[in-house]
Amino acid sequence: MYNRTSATLMLQTIMVLMDKQNSTDVTNFPASFSEDYELERCYGIYGCFSKAYPWTEHRPDNYFPVSPESMAVRYATFTRRNRKIPVMLHADSTDKVRNANLDPRGPFYFLTHGFLEGGHKLWIQNMAEALLNIEGNEAATVVIVDWRGGSQPPYGQAVANIRLVGAMTAHLIHNIYDILALPHIDNFHFVGHSLGAHLGGYCGHELQKRYNLKLGRITGLDPAAPYFSKTVTLVRLDRSDAKFVDVIHSNAMPLYFSGFGISEPIGHVDFYPNGGSTQPGCKKSDSLYEGASYQQVVRYVGCNHERSHEYFLESIAPSCPFMAIHCESYEAFLAGKCTNCDTKHFCIPMGYHSPGIYRRLQMGGLVDSNSHVSLYSLTGSSKPYCRVHYEVVLKVSNTTESRKHGPESGKLSIILVDRNDNRSDIKYLNEDQKYYKPGEIETKMIAVKDTGHPPIYVIVEWKYEANLFNPMTWRLLKSPSIYIEYMKLSSIEYNTDITVCPKMNKPVVANLPTIMMTKYCKFRK
């Protein structure tokens, strides 16, 4: 039976074999000049590719891209008229573009995958369908950039290959622009996952350098970190690659901790859901068994990495606003220091609908296109992932009864109830038991499923577990309970505040759901 540790060790072994990883950031140059005298290799209309600086920085090996023929890049093109059977475009064929019957009104979406994947992946197909289904997208075109022939091991070779695929895709976009006589490519949107995110960056850079065209938008879905972290902007996706670059970080931690995604903010807006490194549901949902295949191991440890494209897919038609808030750090966000969508802590929806709010903030002078904006949010552990956020301020009563009862150790759960009697999911203020003292004030950020309206009252329950080795949890002569003076909930999405209290200042007794309402606060001592 595998556990998480063995899965992580297996992943590390796989990556070492793929990457030829070693402990140095210096490129391993050949022993003699005659072994590899090329520093540049050219591929006809797609240009030349160097192996000199900066392509040597923070990379244990360095490759040229393989030839276009070897990768056999395919551009499967879908519209509402042909959802099931795509029209196949080629980067260097103008005739195929002319005969594809593309609608010049657009928008145009380019979707691509990462290492070890291909355009046939279900998430790409689902995303293409969702984009075509958007209201008002009758003229939309979705192009799936399938470079599976170049996404295979070793990893360093795949890293090199995306430079050429980016140039090829830029050439295709220019052909579409030219043949359809478009005034610009503002409504061209490139969406790439992992290595595919940096591929989008190369495409955007090439369009500017060669054709003086600038993509309207690039969305990076957990852009790959190995070979890209701490590199210069030419080497990786950067906000200069399009008019708007948004990034969702879902696995931003070191490779030796099973991390694949880059941690640096590299877009105009960088979203860090759940802190951007690990995602709820990924640690506990999967289990590995002895004899699990290589793909199963990668899927197990890649859950956090893949969650970025799941978030973006859901954001196209979200169940709630999918809001994220600007804050100085994730820790400050969790501590409830950024709870109001204002000029200091502005809010932007994560995913597909982010550009509109960003432009409004830009027009108001609140954001600068030459700087990064980092935003934080919480999600659920399963679909739908979207949640609404509340700052919860809990005051433990300091009355005579509370002090006489003394400190308590346990967990508090809350359920929010709206005006239509719709109830949120159960949410614990802390995952583990916490020690509460009379007079203590606790501030937390929580996220719950949206009921459609802000709450009008709260159901609170006290969970108490005695621990033989912790005398603070012993309750021999009195019932486990906690005296709560009040609970204040401030909504980010609804911009509302509500303060609720227990009826007649009664304690919340263990395992007995207690209704707390605003009208009960008149009894506060």
From TrEMBL:
Keyword Membrane among UniProt keywords: no
Positions of the catalytic residues: S194 (nucleophile), D222 (charge relay system), H305 (charge relay system)
Gene Ontology biological process: lipid catabolic process
Primary localization class, coarse: secreted
Domain Lipase: start-end pairs: 40-355
Record keywords: Calcium, Disulfide bond, Metal-binding, Secreted
Localisation per UniProt entry: Secreted
One Pfam family in the UniProt entry: Lipase
Highest taxon, organism lineage: Eukaryota
Single GO molecular function: metal ion binding
GO cellular component labels: extracellular space
Entry's family note: Belongs to the AB hydrolase superfamily. Lipase family.
Listed PANTHER family: LD47264P, LIPASE
Protein's name according to its UniProt entry: Esterase
Organism: Manduca sexta (Tobacco hawkmoth)
Lineage of the organism: Eukaryota, Metazoa, Ecdysozoa, Arthropoda, Hexapoda
